[in-house]
From TrEMBL:
Phylogenetic lineage: Bacteria, Pseudomonadati, Planctomycetota, Planctomycetia, Pirellulales
Cited SUPFAM superfamilies: Integrin alpha N-terminal domain (SSF69318), TPR-like (SSF48452)
Protein name according to UniProt: Tetratricopeptide repeat protein
Signal peptide (from-to): none
Domain ASPIC/UnbV: 1004-1069
Sorted UniProt keywords: Signal
């Protein structure tokens, strides 16, 4: 979904313009037109403006690079189509006599050359060129002259002759000589020489030539812009940045330049034209960096490393490739290879942030946090200091290092945190500005203000200037802001103002360099030595086939329900509001020990209550009976999700139904019916689009509160359409077109009411997200609950309490490592799975994302600090092609290790060019293999449901048949709900625990359970929300593996922080554990 393109920054110049106007001839009609350079990489940025593609992409600087490549392609198509062998040999060789030329021709050979070109007699022109070069070379030799000495126009004429006879290398050389003779005085001629060099695959010679031209003629701003764009397109930001800065200081900028200069994240251009350079000049592999960077951005580290090793093997001192290679090796967990890579680096690599990121990640992986901090600190001194992942890494490391020692001043810690947040905000604002067509004055001003806060005043003023050119918006005062900003600017203003920015203080120098730095030498050791990858945690490719079985028994158990957002979800043209699907939850509403199901539906038009009714299925000995109407909970709002919990602390589970429109709170009467208590909770806007929710004690007063997660603001998502590029076919719009809606926190007042406490609790992030999933529980190991919210295309949110007299929350996801992925890039996040996923005794998260992104595994490194360990745990590549929605961490066979299960499905049914989108997608299951990470399971072997593809949405747990194994419920867009009964044969031990709070809230959300067995401890967390639009069963199921214990000891740390021990609790059964009274 790319915004409309602006015209090319530099128009494609006809090849004839390469040569003097006096000899310009009309184009030869026999020459085919050059192939049009396509900015859109198939499958990546080919969606229409406003539609949701695989990832946020933009052409940015694409059109200006396109101008070069278009002309370069044309340059490679000579007029008379002769190759070198057709021309009669070396132009400088041969006897003194010149066949084909008369004595008259030789009286004034330059004039003869001009006439031959005017008359399009290309072979004669080439012959004259040879004569001129031989004669001049001989004269220079007799006079001991250094080189031929033609005027610039003569060199250009000879270049024209060379080009038209197929001597493209010579044509490039002669054009370069034409520029050199006149000290690069003609900007157009310089650019055409660059085109000629690129046309024969000498891309980097073209860059070097432009550098010489700018050094000789620094005021040639158009050539400087070409140089900036070409460097940026080749992924050499360090070389591009000085030229971009100079252009902005000279007030010669546009949106494309501003976006490109600040793009530290992902490559946004296709790499095919650069690959063409390698085809034309196989001796230079450096252009392949574009492809390698794209693979790196896509998380395919194997392929990226393969390409980068090819590049660096041939060009060992090419630092842009070396820096990305180091990052890829570190990201892939290949620590031994990182060490060898570091030992091979040469002087100059230290200017590249990627170098410091690589060795910082290497140190962090070894547990050497202080050295890691030093490396990331060094990265902030590079010419490209504002790489968001550098600052987020610093922000997560500082609390771990400071601890109780307070080695770094608190003001510095807060400044680092703030910069990490502001940089993330800046990136998201740019993304929204581009996706909405680059027309919003308000967003442009917001970008300018963010840059001002970062101390980047020159860029701030440039963005403010851009905002001044956009459509008027009475709500924003751009002129006033710019006037104030100009008062701060002068010629002496540095690019990055450091006064008042303590984050740039050298606080890190007190810590040692990583040990790996000691082996870096300015002299390169022997290269291409065998690589020792024995320390890599990666496993061989392929899927495993465990003896697990699950079958869809919904129909057999009379669970017949199809909650859907539309009746036409199997046809193209789905609106955004119809894409999220409908969820459900597990609830034992009658407390008979058999878990029931509540399922929501939609199908109407938000916010009206005209949808299909929700349904409650009572579980009667494993058979499901619909009872919603008699229970009084057949809501007809546009249903999205449901939260289950004891909202009024009476011992019976209640329901919070989330709608696009008014939400509903149903209080369980304890007699099989519910009463509508929606009027007791603070109402939101009538058009509030709620997706998920949770019932849990947030403020620690022993009473359950309500948290409502909201998606987009208003009703525009219901009415706005987004056609496919070049067609009338409608597609779901990108969510970025719509503002994120604020989430709401409703406090239990102890009298049955739930007033809005969002402001009172300070539960307001820097920027509203588009919330889709939620989990509440004790995540950091300290007393009290935290809230994690998965947001779509904006940073995730994490709320924790702050030490104040009155209860308050603070949002800090980015600085805790769970606001985005490892690169600091926000994803299209939806589902959330939680648990002690690596069995190291703490709380981890797994978050599903959109296709083109990988689902993210966040493993907790220390209290309240997480690391993206997706690649190290082998989970990156399998999820990139799919759109992940619901996910849970379950123990399929009770062996004590949690598996990850994900239901996938695209948001729409559509095609992009020759690519047919995969609307229905396979469910995925990943099995943990100890220290070797995760293995993808061949799900086809699990049963018929898994062998088919589905358009999955919500997924949650239930033990529908009370056999001590975890079952699953799954909703879909194009088929009824599935009830997947776990039929795995396992002799492993297990235990099921139901917690009841007394001092704490009844549901005891935030409790941590540790079961002690002869094989070691097993940990479980009592959480609420459970991810995407759903609620899991409230019972904690723990697989105990091979432990033969018939009875076990259990410790429970309740939400109030007090730990109680329970002895001799029987296994292979369900037990209720009740907190002691005050």
């Amino acid at each position: 979904m790319i915004p409309p393109m602006k015209p090319a920054l530099f128009p494609t110049v006809p090849i004839a313009a390469t040569f003097p106007d006096a000899v310009t001839a009309e184009a030869d009609p026999s020459v085919p037109a050059p192939v049009v350079f396509d900015d859109a990489k198939p499958g990546r940025c080919d969606a229409a403006p406003g539609t949701r593609g695989s990832r946020p992409m933009t052409a940015a600087f694409g059109k200006s690079i396109a101008a070069v490549f278009l002309a370069a392609v044309a340059f490679a198509l000579p007029g008379c189509r002769q190759n070198d062998s057709d021309s009669g040999g070396d132009v400088r060789g041969g006897a003194a006599s010149v066949p084909g030329l008369s004595e008259t021709d030789l009286i004034n050979p330059v004039g003869t050359l001009k006439l031959a070109i005017r008359e399009r007699r290309w072979e004669k022109a080439w012959t004259v060129t040879g004569y001129l070069l031989r004669e001049d070379s001989g004269a220079a030799s007799e006079e001991n002259g250094p080189s031929p000495s033609f005027e610039a126009d003569t060199w250009a004429l000879m270049g024209r002759a060379a080009h038209e006879t197929g001597h493209l290398q010579e044509a490039a050389e002669y054009l370069c000589r034409a520029c050199e003779v006149e000290s690069f005085a003609t900007p157009m001629r310089v650019r055409q020489a660059v085109i000629a060099l690129v046309g024969v695959g000498r891309f980097y010679d073209g860059l070097a030539f432009l550098e010489r031209a700018i050094a000789a003629q620094p005021d040639q701003t158009e050539n400087r812009r070409w140089l900036f764009d070409l460097y940026a397109g080749a992924d050499d930001r360090i070389s591009a940045i000085p030229h971009g800065k100079q252009l902005i200081r000279s007030r010669l900028f546009d949106v494309e330049l501003l976006v490109t200069l600040s793009n530290t994240e992902m490559r946004r251009l296709e790499a095919d034209p650069l690959e063409e350079m390698v085809q034309r000049n196989p001796d230079d592999l450096r252009p392949r960096l574009g492809t390698a960077k794209s693979e790196f951005d896509d998380g395919d580290y194997d392929e990226a490393i393969k390409i980068l090793r090819e590049i660096t093997s041939k060009h060992p001192d090419y630092h842009p490739a070396q820096a990305i290679l180091g990052q890829a090796l570190a990201a892939d967990g290949r620590s031994g290879e990182v060490e060898q890579w570091a030992a091979e680096q040469t002087a100059g690599i230290e200017d590249y942030p990627g170098y410091w990121i690589a060795i910082g990640d290497w140190a962090r992986g070894r547990g050497d946090l202080e050295s890691a901090l030093r490396a990331f600190g060094q990265a902030t001194q590079c010419p490209d200091p504002d790489v968001v992942q550098v600052w987020t890494r610093l922000a997560t490391l500082l609390p771990q290092i400071n601890g109780s020692k307070q080695q770094i001043p608190e003001a510095t810690v807060q400044a680092v945190n703030e910069r990490a947040k502001q940089l993330s905000r800046f990136r998201q604002l740019k993304d929204r500005f581009e996706r909405t067509g680059k027309i919003s004055r308000a967003i442009a001003l917001d970008i300018a203000q963010t840059l001002q806060q970062l101390g980047r005043l020159w860029e701030s003023e440039a963005w403010a200037s851009i905002a001044m050119t956009l459509a008027e918006d009475d709500a924003v005062d751009v002129a006033g802001f710019r006037k104030e900003l100009l008062s701060e600017l002068s010629a002496e203003t540095p690019w990055q103002v450091r006064q008042g920015h303590p984050e740039f203080a050298p606080f890190y120098v007190k810590f040692p360099m990583p040990e790996i730095e000691k082996v870096v030498s300015s002299s390169r050791p022997e290269r291409n030595a065998p690589v020792d990858a024995s320390d890599s945690p990666r496993m061989t490719a392929g899927e495993v086939m465990p003896s697990w079985k699950m079958s869809d028994q919904a129909e057999a158990r009379h669970l017949r329900y199809f909650g859907r957002t539309s009746d036409t979800l199997d046809q193209p043209g789905i609106m955004l509001y119809e894409t999220l699907g409908c969820g459900g939850g597990t609830i034992d509403f009658d407390r008979d020990g058999w878990e029931d199901l509540y399922l929501v539906a939609a199908g109407g038009t938000p916010p009206a209550a005209d949808s299909e009714p929700n349904e409650l299925f009572r579980n009667v000995d494993g058979d499901f009976q619909p009872v919603a109407a008699s229970a009084g909970i057949d809501d007809r709002g546009f249903g999205q999700g449901v939260a289950v919990g004891d909202a009024n602390e009476d011992g019976f589970p209640d329901l919070l139904v989330l709608n696009y429109g008014p939400n509903r709170l149903y209080i369980n009467n304890g007699d099989g019916t519910f009463r509508d208590a929606s009027g007791l909770m603070a109402s939101g806007p009538a058009d509030e689009w709620s997706s998920s929710g949770a019932i849990a004690d947030v403020d620690g007063d022993g009473l359950s509160d309500l948290v409502i997660v909201n998606y987009c603001e208003g009703l525009e998502p219901v009415t706005r359409t987004c056609p496919m590029k070049g067609t009338d076919q409608l597609r779901s719009c990108t969510p970025v077109l719509f503002a994120g809606a604020a989430d709401r926190f409703l406090a239990n007042d102890g009298s049955g009411g739930y007033p809005d406490a969002t402001t009172r609790w300070n539960a307001k992030p820097d920027r509203n997200g588009r919330g889709l999933g939620i989990v509440i529980g004790n995540m950091d190991g300290n007393q009290g609950n935290e809230i994690f919210i998965a947001n779509d295309m904006t940073n995730n949110h994490y709320y924790s309490r702050v030490p104040t007299e009155s209860f308050a929350l603070a949002e800090s996801a980015m600085v805790r490592g769970i606001g985005a992925d490892d690169r600091g890039i926000a994803q299209g996040s939806m589902g959330i799975a939680t648990g002690d996923l690596d069995r190291d005794g703490d709380f981890d998260l797994y978050v599903t994302n959109f296709n083109g992104e990988y689902n993210t595994l966040h493993l907790q490194a220390s209290s309240g600090i997480w690391r993206d360990r997706t690649a190290a745990e082998n989970l990156t590549r399998p999820t990139i092609p799919l759109v992940g929605f619901g996910t849970e961490a379950i123990d399929m066979d009770n062996d004590g290790d949690l598996e990850l299960v994900i239901t996938n499905g695209h948001v729409d049914l559509f095609s992009r060019g020759d690519e047919i989108a995969m609307y229905d997608q396979p469910l995925q299951l990943f099995r943990r293999a100890g220290s070797q990470g995760y293995q993808s399971v061949d799900v086809d072997s699990l049963g018929d449901y898994f062998a088919k593809r589905h358009v999955g949405r919500s997924l949650w747990t239930i033990d529908a048949n009370r056999d001590g194994q975890v079952d699953l419920a799954v909703t879909h867009q194009t088929e009824p709900v599935a009830l997947l009964i776990n039929e795995t044969e396992s002799n492993a031990n297990w235990i099921r625990l139901e917690l009841h709070g007394r001092r704490s809230s009844r549901d005891a959300i935030g409790s941590v359970v540790s079961v002690q067995t002869t094989d070691g401890p097993h940990l479980a967390f009592r959480v609420s929300g459970d991810g995407y639009q759903c609620s899991n069963e409230s019972i904690l199921q723990l697989g105990l593996g091979d432990a033969a214990d018939e009875r076990v000891d259990i410790s429970v740390t309740w939400p109030d922080g007090i730990t109680e021990n329970f002895s001799e609790i029987p296994t292979r059964t369900q037990t209720s554990l009740v907190q002691q009274a005050r």
